[in-house]
Amino acid sequence: xxxxxxxxxxxxxxxxxxxxxxxxxxxxxxxxxxxxxxxxxxxxxxxxxxxxxxxxxxxxxxxxxxxxxxxxxxxxxxxxxxxxxxxxxxxxxxxxxxxxxxxxxxxxxxxxxxxxxxxxxxxxxxxxxxxxxxxxxxxxxxxxxxxxxxxxxxxxxxxxxxxxxxxxxxxxxxxxxxxxxxxxxxxxxxxxxxxxxxxxxxxxxxxxxxxxxxxxxxxxxxxxxxxxxxxxxxxxxxxxxxxxxxxxxxxxxxxxxxxxxxxxxxxxxxxxxxxxxxxxxxxxxxxxxxxxxxxxxxxxxxxxxxxxxxxxxxxxxxxxxxxxxxxxxxxxxxxxxxxxxxxxxxxxxxxxxxxxxxxxxxxxxxxxxxxxxxxxxxxxxxxxxxxxxxxxxxxxxxxxxxxxxxxxxxxxxxxxxxxxxxxxxxxxxxxxxxxxxxxxxxxxxxxxxxxxxxxxxxxxxxxxxxxxxxxxxxxxxxxxxxxxxxxxxxxxxxxxxxxxxxxxxxxxxxxxxxxxxxxxxxxxxxxxxxxxxxxxxxxxxxxxxxxxxxxxxxxxxxxxxxxxxxxxxxxxxxxx
Length: 576
Prior knowledge:
- With 576 residues, this protein is of the alpha/beta class.
- It has 26 helices and eight strands.
- It has two domains: 2-286, no CATH class; 299-428 and 442-570, Alpha/Beta hydrolase fold, catalytic domain (Rossmann fold, 3-Layer(aba) Sandwich), CATH 3.40.50.1820.
- The chain has helices at residues 2-17, 21-40, 42-46, 51-62, 65-70, 78-92, 102-118, 133-158, 165-176, 179-196, 201-208, 219-227, 230-241, 250-286, 337-340, 365-378, 392-402, 429-435, 438-448, 454-462, 474-482, 488-498, 507-511, 532-538, 554-557, 559-570, and strands at residues 299-303, 306-313, 318-323, 344-349, 385-389, 409-413, 517-522, 544-547.
- Helix 6 (78-92) runs antiparallel to helix 7 and helix 7 (102-118) crosses helix 14 (250-286).
- It starts with a helix and ends in a 6-residue tail after the last helix.
- Mean pLDDT is 77; it is low at 121-130, 159-185, 191-212 and 237-248.
């Protein structure tokens, strides 16, 4: 959207001036260079470092501002000053905005810029020539072609690994429902709507303090202009633009103009809402996953009348029970479990609401922990060490509190069992309502029906050296990981869990765990499953094993290294 504003800044200027001439071309190229700097700043912006992005946008905007200033021809100076240096100064302050408010700050600045661009301070019609329609049509057509080209690239990338009918449909929808595409659509609709409301060259000129140029059409007019005193020409220009006659001041004009902008936006928003809603409902009807899925492997056991799915590796040695985290299943352990099975009997469980276990609608931490202890009881596993990854750390911690006599030890893997900030209590009934909106269902299915969106997440969470995602089996692993999420039972479970507090323990509960304890952590895992420092603080004195070059998915990043770390911890587990 910001690139669009920078582009439209130049487009509107050239349209009103009838071109920028040789002297203005260097400024235009400088503005293009600013867009390049802005593009380079996108990735740092995502990482929370907006300086390069802000500087690039300011360059793109202010490079052509001298042309606005030179064209004002006696009109008020406040509007062009606000449009150029004023707004740019605000953009340069965005790196100081807290990260959680940055999106709102950018939206507010974009809204301010649109107000300055579209709104007349006096609200009067003008007899000045209208905008050049053919020029705008050509420019906007080229911009739309670029957006469509990017959509085609997204679709091609989506089909790089999978070529099914479902992938074609999902890729096409994902490309055209991309936020950037929706933003361009929204802005385009606004521009067309404003154009049909007789947006004239005078409107732009008055807003930005730029006097429109109306060339004399006849010999008599040209002679009159030649003989007319300079002071009279200046006064006529002031009367034409009306900028100096604004009795309430520029800020009053902007505030008043916001109401006018709202009248433009409301019908556009309503139309966009209807289009998106119809598209979402249609997509949900066409892309309807099965209610439940059968597990391709593993076994089932009944725990309190509910079916719990699990897998087993190995035939001898001390037992280990592996418990997965959020949006995971037994598949998460499929690489490291065979390594552990060389010396142990290894069990991996699908928690209720995940994987291929029965979806009961009851997914509290007590329900999750009961599934673990119930599996241990049903299979008569002799005091196993239970390993919980990420959110699973809270589950194994709770199991150790509920049945300490049945558990031989607890290991937290990339999880501190704490809740994220703001997720320790039920979020309220509104989350249940939001989670049932058709748009949420559409986004969920777009994200799970193919591996297009999953692969970048895996690469980011795995770490700088991700051995588990190298080689020809990487795509099969990701597909197996995503498969349990492709059912309506999984969708229902996600809705239930979204409406309740995050699965967690309190620091006091973790400190009261009285079975042998240990910690294993990916060296590059900063905060995905919590904090290593918090885990070590609550598990005071517990041994810690760190896996080099591994991120949050440490058991995928280095399966052999993870197994070796567990082996090391088993000899060092300490009881508080």
